[in-house]
Amino acid sequence: MTTSAPTSAASDAGQSTKRVLLAAPRGYCAGVDRAVVSVERALELYGPPVYVRKEIVHNKHVVATLEKRGAIFVEETDEVPEGATVVFSAHGVAPVVHDEAKALSLKTIDATCPLVTKVHREAVRFAGDDYDILLIGHEGHEEVVGTSGEAPENITLVESPEDVDNVEVRDPDKVVWLSQTTLSVDETMETVRRLREKFPALQDPPSDDICYATQNRQLAVKQMAEHCDLMLVVGSRNSSNSVRLVEVAIEHGARDGHLVDYADEIDESWLDGVRTVGVTSGASVPEILVRGVLDYLAERGYGDPQPVTAVEESVVFSLPKELRKDLKAAGLDDKMKHDAGSLEDAGQLH
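The structure corresponding to this sequence follows.
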C-alpha cells in the first residue's frame, strides 16, 4: 500500500512547521537479517569465538556489536585457525574460498544472501553454455568478487554506462548481462540499454538481479525526494545500497543529501533553512540508528515523522542449512530469532 504523496517543500514555504518524512521500507532486508542472525545463533550454539570472513554486512555498528559478543572478523580465510568455525558474509564468496576453508578443516556457515546465490547460479549456468557474461557492478565489491569467481573466464565487469564502448565479446549472439544486487536501478538499466544498442542479441537474466529490497528502498526515496529540502540516509560508506540512496535522492529532486552512520555525524549547518527532512536507511542498518536520527531532529523542532510507504515487505529467509542442522541436533529452535544479548546491547541490532 502506498501512502498519498506528501505536499512539496516549496508549497510549505509560508508555514513555520518543520517536518520529517520517514521512508518505508527502510533498514534491514531479509538477506541482512538472515546473515546477522546467523552470527548470533552461531555464537549461541558454538560459543565464542566465531570467525566471520569480511564484514558480515556493510555496517560499522553491526560489526562492532557482534565483535563485543565474541565474533572475530577477518579479511582472508587463512586468518582463521584450523578447525574453527567461520561464517561467510551476506555478499557471497568465490568457489576458491570454499576450497580454502576445506583445506583448513574449517566448519563453515554460508550466510550468503539467497538473492546473491541466485546470481552465482546464473553465472555458472550461462558459463556452462559458453556465454560471455557482462556483470554490471563495482570493481572490488565483495559481491562482484564472489560472482566473478564462479566463471572468471566468461565474465567481463561493466561498472557504468560509460564503460560500454570498451566492452568486447567473442560472439555478439551469445551474450547475457547479470548485475550486483545493490546497484541503482536507473543507472543499471541505462547500462543495459547501452549494452543492447551495441549487442542487439543481449539476453536478460531469468529474473531481475537487483534485489527487491534495493529497489523498494530506492522507490520510497524517489517518492519523497522532490518534497525534501534535505535527505538523511543512515548507512555506512562502504554500503553500496546506502550510497545509492543518497544519489537517488539528489537525482529525484532533494535539494541536499548526506550519508551518516550515527546522528552525531549530522552537521547542524545542513539544517539551515530546511523545513522538510527525509529520513531513510540502507538495507544493512539496524532501526536503532534511525531512531537516533529522529531523536536528533525532534530536539531541533522537527515534528513527528510522517511515513511515506512505497510498498509492504514480507520476505523472510531461513537460516543456512548447516546452522539449522546443528541447532536441531542440539535441541534448539532452528527458526530465525534475534539474540538480544546483554541488557546494554539489547535492541542494538534489531
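The first strand starts at residue 19 and ends at 24.
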